[in-house]
Amino acid sequence: MNIPPLSAHTCSLRIARNLHLLLITTLITGMSILLPACGGKEEDRSGKVEITFWHSLVSSTVPALQDLIKKFEEEHPGITVKAQYVPTGDALIQKLVTAVHSNTAPDVSWIHANFMQDLIEADAIYTMEEFIRGPDSLPQADLQDIYPALMEQAKWRGVLYSMPMEATALGLLCNRELFRNAGLDPDQPPRDWNELRAMARKLTLDKNGDGKFEQMGLFIPIFPYSGPYGDWMVWQWYPFLFQAGGNVITLDQSRVLFDSPEAITALTLWKEIYNDLNLSSFTIDYEVAFASKTLAMAIDGPWNIPRWRKMKNLDWTVAPLPAGPARNATVAGGEYLSIFKQSRHPKETWMFVKWMLRPDVQAFWSMRSGYLPVRHAVRSVKEYNDYLETDPPLRAYVESMEFAVAPRPIDYHSLRISRHLAEALEQATLGRKDPATVLRRAAAESNRLLESVVRK
Amino acid sequence: MPAAKKRTVLTLSGSVLLHVVVYGLALATIAPFLWMVLTSVKDLPEILTYPPRWIPERATLDNFVNAFEAAPFGRYYFNSLFVAFSVTAGQLITCSMAAYAFARLQFRGRDVLFYLFLGTMMIPGQVTMIPSFMVLHWLGWVDSYYALIVPGLASAFGTFLLRQFFLTIPRDLEDAASLDGCSRFGVLWRIILPLSRPALATLAIFTFMGVFNDFLWALIVVSSDEMKTVQLGLAIFRDRYQTDWGQLMAASVTATLPIIIVFFAAQKYFIRGITLSGMKD
Amino acid sequence: MVKATPHADQHQQSRRARERKDIIAGVLFLSPTLLVFSLFVVFPVVFSFFLSFHKWNMFSAEQAFVGFDNYAAILVNPEFWSVLSNTALYTLGTVPLNMVIALAAAYVLNKKIIGRRILRTAFFLPVVMSPVAAAVIWRWVYEPNFGLLNYGLSVFGIPSVNWLNDPTAAMFALILMGVWKSFGVNLVLFSAGLQGIPEQYYEAAQIDGAGKVRQFWNITLPLLSPTTFFILVMSIISSFQVFDTVYVLTSGGPLGSTKVLVFYLYENAFKYFEMGYASAVAYLLFAIVFVLTLVQVKYLRGSVHYG
Question: Which residues of chain B make contact with C114, given a CB cutoff of 8 A?
């Protein structure tokens, strides 16, 4: 290669011609350094207080949330609520923890009982007592009106760290059309485990004779225990544990109870149905399956009501879960709100949390979102009762609340214990292991964790 | 000459077969991509049709409308593009300077430093993630553009790539410039960089792609909606109770499009850059 | 040693002067990179190492020193060994398949073929897609009832498989997607290597009467070996670090069959906040990858030809 001698002049020309890319990009970098970092929680110019609210509501519920916030802001002209979506499960706790660490925590956020330990140890959230007994107090009568099951889950080691925003219960989602096709009466859903098993079998069809089921009678929710659905699987198993007469943990939280005969009975039921229907070859996206009319029954929650309602071609309803050998039960849960100590407006944030508990607000939110009210008093709001008559699925969930059981809280290592249990559920069904063996192993691992806890 | 004719026929049929196989593989490669695009314009009943139909009977943009309603994708876009451009620009500068030092400058410990540098490429990002987050926290940069940009402003891979390229440039060029009185810096800017356009373009595209597609780091350092990137926005649709495939595919198309445009526009540089960098050490 | 002549002395002096100049330039040139690296690589690496000997949950102010407890706990944990074997399985499945397809495609694209550029674009498309989007798409492709893959198989009369809900099939699904996602990179690298082989070699071989196959074995493969070696080393490193696609596609399931090392690390760090334990896992991962690379350099380098 022949290189002409370079003079300073040709040097600079070359830069201009060849390096415009670099120069432009240098400029952009410079801009980025000069640009102020966004995202601070500055007060509105109009002097309004803005509170940030983190939630994991699914997108079909977002319109309801917007209505709720509008209602709050109309009643409280000085406050605006900024709702922010955060992915649920692992991601929520990870975000909360890192946010607390970096001083960017929200004012108020959804909290699951399982996540409280980390946040409390980081001294990140207020106890509710500070507000309940504060100047803007909450009467004891209101507190006692909240379902006790929910209040248990709102506490950590007996101290109230959150308030329920909404309740959930699990029910049995049924496709009425598939019931009719199978010669079953859609108004007579299964009442006990035997009927559940029989109907599930009857609703499972091999339509083209290839030895595989194209239509599934009942979805047994088995998900990878290591994934984000692991806790959800455990949650859906709890009703069966309760129906068999079992519970998760002893009252003093010293030992888990899922190696009990009741627990083994509950898991055996799951395993038998799972094998009977050959569910291991069926999709785990039960919502897709239900929407496509290839699934007749599934365990589901009220948050999905707006979702199914949008699907005009589905003839569906919700029934209370069938009773087990010991009793009638479902699992009561909910979403809880905690106020963060990093909040610059704890007073206004509490106003929002307290407002959320008002019976008419609870009724309003329930009717819009499908979530269940957290207190008995809502049942005496006439408008709400009238509404329930027109909404059988929601009514089924609300009525289920009467016999709903909240799992006893697990204050220490709850995420790991839940994972051990999830692993046992997956191994007994998909892994074809003996339910008693896997439950005993999971319980032993969990108890070892509990023993290691130095009680403070 | 029947033998020669036979061979021609053989080569021809071999060639046809080859084309069929290669085009089959190419089709299989892009099938999931086409499937995404076509699913994104179908409504739910059509998505849940079996056997699946490739071409939608009623094409609809509802999934896109719904996806954009559910999340401010415009803002996410701006964030992703801004961050990706900034990191790319920064890396071009820092990497070319460092690469030149490793390729040409003579100082003690240079090679040890270089191999240490290369060694960091083997460290999984997860090793450094936790403490890196703490550094950002101490600097007060969490949930800001700085958190997304600054840690990316240097790269062992980029330095390595450019060093390898610089090594292929004949030294005579630089010696000539040095005799002309150009400083080391002058040599880098006036001779090396102009000759390295393909390598710089390669690095730029690699970096842009990596930053635009990054998910985990953004998930950790960003919390407010204003700072979210497109990939985080996509995560919204991957939520626990959500298997709305139409919207998911619409969001995926949205999250993929800019990268594909960049790729089509700059493919030439990309291929040529890698070709020229001659990955021998 | 040869005694220095006055001339050599002078030469040495000018070299020293140049070196001194170069040190200053070197510091200037390297300082931006070193600054960023010390903050976001060097310090984190050291701090992680420190953490791996401590118990820390990210909240408490103090880290409790536990010596080698974290490492010992990992090594006696059967889960770690199953995670390690999953990772090895993924690597064994992905790397050879990836390299064979990439090399074959690169070889063919290097020949007379119509539409070379279109083909190359098609093969490279998956590489540029975000792993999140790609995994979302593949979940839909693998969907047992409406998915593309089962439909495609049914055309050939192959019974449907529940890809993501069967321990064996899920690992295969992950490998398939991994190969799909990344063979385009290796294709480009192989193409570059192939184009670097001078045409004369082939011409000479043709004169000697060597057929296409012989040419491939005797010329292409040996002369391509530096590229192949580079790709092998990099592919193994990156498949040991696979995470994003596992996270979105299988979440480590079913039955933990696709739980790989980085997923395990992530779980311990960001789900259980066992920062010390997770850091120790990170260091073990690093050690494994390091040793694997050393082994390759030691035993395979010898068979690499430099043209």
Answer: 19
**Whether B161 contacts B203, CB under 8 Å:** yes
CATH number where A55 lies: 3.40.190.10
Question: What is the helix (H) or strand (E) element at residue A338, kind and residue range?
Answer: strand A330-339
pTM: 0.82
Give the structural domain span for A395.
49-168+333-405
Distance of CA B47 to the CA centre of its chain: 31
Contact residues, chain C, for B256 at CB < 8 Å: 129-130, 133
Q: Do A6 and B245 touch (CB under 8 A)?
A: no
Length of chain B: 281
**A56 near B CB under 8 A:** yes
A202-245 per-position pLDDT tens digit: 999 988 777 778 899 999 999 999 887 888 899 999 999 999 99
- Burial of A36 per CB tally in 10 Å (0-12, 13-18, 19+): exposed
pLDDT at C205: 86
Q: CB B93 to CB A29 under 8 A? A: yes
| Nearest partner of C252 among C241, C240, C263, C265, judged by Cα | C263
**For A100-113, b where at least 16 C-beta lie within 10 A, e where not — what string?**
bbbebbbbbbbbbb
> Are A400 and A169 spatial neighbours (Cβ–Cβ below 8 Å)?
yes
Query: Looking at residue C266, what is its pLDDT?
Result: 83
Confidence bin at B190 (pLDDT 50/70/90): confident
Q: Are A172 and A178 in contact (CB under 8 A)?
A: no
What is the token pair recorded at C108? 């063919």
CA distance A138 to A211: 61
Option in B86, B141, B235 nearest A37 (CB): B141
What are the start-end ranges of the E strands in A132-188? 155-156, 159-160, 163-169, 171-175
Residue A135 lies in a domain: yes
Q: Chain C: list its partners (3+ Cβ pairs within 8 Å).
A: A, B
CA end-to-end distance (rounded Å), chain B:
50
* Residue A392 in domain: yes
Which architecture does CATH list for C78-303? Orthogonal Bundle (1.10)
> Looking only at Cα atoms, what is the longest distance across chain B?
82
C227/B124 Cβ within 8 A: no
Is residue A175 a contact partner of residue A193, using CB atoms and an 8 Å limit? no
Query: How far is the alpha carbon of B134 from chain C, nearest alpha carbon, in Å?
Result: 9
Range of the domain at B50: 2-62
More confident site: C33 or B189: C33
Residues of B (216-275) whose Cβ lies below 8 Å from A: 219-221, 223-227, 235-245, 247
pLDDT band of residue A48 (cuts 50, 70, 90) is confident
| Chains touching A (3+ CB pairs < 8 Å) | B, C
The set of residues, in sequence order, having a beta carbon less than 8 Å from that of C240 and lying 6+ positions away, is C87, C91, C261, C285, C288, C289, C292
Please indicate whether, in this complex, the C-beta atoms of B180 and A95 are within 8 angstroms of each other: no
Residues B72 and B51 in one domain: no
